[in-house]
Amino acid sequence: MITRTVRHMCLGTRSHNRWLQLRFHSTSPAIFEDVGKAGFIIKSSSTNVFENLALEDWIHDNVDLQKRSILYLWRNSSAVVIGRHQNPWQECNLRLMRQMGMPLARRRSGGGTVFHDLGNINMTFFTSKKKYDRHRNLSVVTSALKNLRPGLDVQSTERFDILLNGQYKISGTAAKLGRTSAYHHCTLLCSADRSVLSPVLKSSFQGIKSNATPSVPSPVKNLFDEDPTLDSETIMTALACQYNREFGFDSPVHEVDPGDEDCWPGIQKMAEELRTWEWVYGRTPKFSVCTDFHVHVGSSNAKVTFNLDIKHGIIENCSMDMPTEWLPKNVSDEFSSFLKGCKYCPNEMAALVAAFLRATHLGTESSSRMYCLCENVIANM
Ligand SMILES: Nc1ncnc2c1ncn2[C@@H]1O[C@H](COP(=O)(O)OC(=O)CCCC[C@@H]2CCSS2)[C@@H](O)[C@H]1O
User: Fold this and answer.
1) What broad class describes the main subcellular location of this protein (predicted)?
2) Which residues form ligand 1's pocket by a CB distance below 6 Å?
3) Fewer CB near the terminus (10 Å): N or C of the chain?
4) Contact yes or no for 249/36 (Cβ under 8 A)
5) Tell me, which fold does domain 287-379 have in CATH?
6) Which residues contact 293 (CB under 8 A, 6 or more apart)?
7) pTM, 2 dp
8) Fold entry, domain 3-280
């Protein structure tokens, strides 16, 4: 299958951009040649999770999907991707991810949390809402794999996972349905680093109560562990071929750069929005944290109970309970009210704590206790 670079097909200026024409002048076949066709396959040249998710948004918002379907193939460097209505504190080990410098992304589709790295292939099937068919899309994946290796036991399930050997998940699905258009996207675990996948998908926090969508953990396996002769390029080519075959299209795989603002006007702003704290954390459904911990300073120790209500990622209510001989009640009360309005974010909290301690001239002993208390609170963020 020929791989083409869409950038080369574009004339370079916004006014001549073929994708814009796709949106605004989609009835002009002479201009379109390839993109005027009913089926189109693209593959991202980027491995940046935010850029790649932004391209999904861009296509969903800008391309007329009534007359054409698109298969979008993409891979990301290591990242965790949560569903639109999920709670990241509940779903992943944020502390470990921060230590590893691993990004967390919130996608616009629902569903659970998955781990991505270059050993994981993502596919997005864009269609009109009428043509939206997850079973058929997943049959493209399973047929592509069976065409490559007829001995593989891969089957899709009722919940739109794909299982290997009837028990190991190799693919998870999510979808976004708009008024007239839709996309279904799914993963394919080929050779992801499972020594990272498991620990990053384990929350390190306790005492979270929320109605956010929980993930459904499953035993996972990499496809290449089953057949080490496979590789990602071969799989992506097979997926593209099977997509054309299943839907009667004849699209080559067009390589696209989601960082190319000329090609996708406004995409950088979309990627920026996906990177913001307000989107990644602030979109978490309202939740509360009720936790207790022991604090030790020198020879003194105490049990602290901590209650927080968090809305849009911001602390709405805060109360803490501890022996008054350990920390005077007026100090803990003042600190509690100081935290209201603060982002549930370790960096922000550390800065606020420093400001609080500067402003409230506590004695050395109380200051040390406050630091200890705050360290414990921050460790839960
Ligand atoms: N990459 C990947 N592929 C398949 N299964 C995974 C993966 N990472 C983790 N898991 C397993 O799935 C569950 C979560 O399953 P759950 O069913 O809760 O969620 C999903 O499957 C969501 C799939 C989203 C697909 C999108 C496509 C493009 S952007 S992300 C997790 O706890 C692990 O056990």
Assistant:
1) mitochondrion
2) 81, 107, 111-116, 120, 122, 169, 171-174, 185-187, 189, 197, 201, 215-218, 220
3) N
4) no
5) Enolase-like; domain 1 (3.30.390)
6) 303, 304, 306, 376
7) 0.92
8) BirA Bifunctional Protein; domain 2 (3.30.930)
